[in-house]
Amino acid sequence: MGRDDFLLPTQRYMLSHSVGLALRSSQQQWQKAFLQPWQENPEQAWPNWLQAIDGFRSALGELLNGNTEDFCPQSNLSSGFSKILQAVPAPANRNIILLSEEDFPSMSFVAQQAKAFGWEVRFLPDTMDLQNLEQWQTQLKDDVGLVLLTHVYSNSSLRLPISELLEQCRQQDIFSVVDIAQSIGVVPIDLQQWQADFVLGSCVKWLCGGPGAGFMWVNPEKLSLCQPKDVGWFSHQDPFEFDVHDFRYHESALRFWGGTPSVQPYALAQHSIEYFQHYGVEKCWQHNQTLTEQLRIAAREACVTPAYRGGTIVLRFNQQDAFVNALGEADIQFDQRPTGVRISPHIYNDQSDIDSVIACYPNS
Question: What's the 3-state SS for 13-29?
Answer without folding.
Answer: ECECCCCCCCECCHHHH
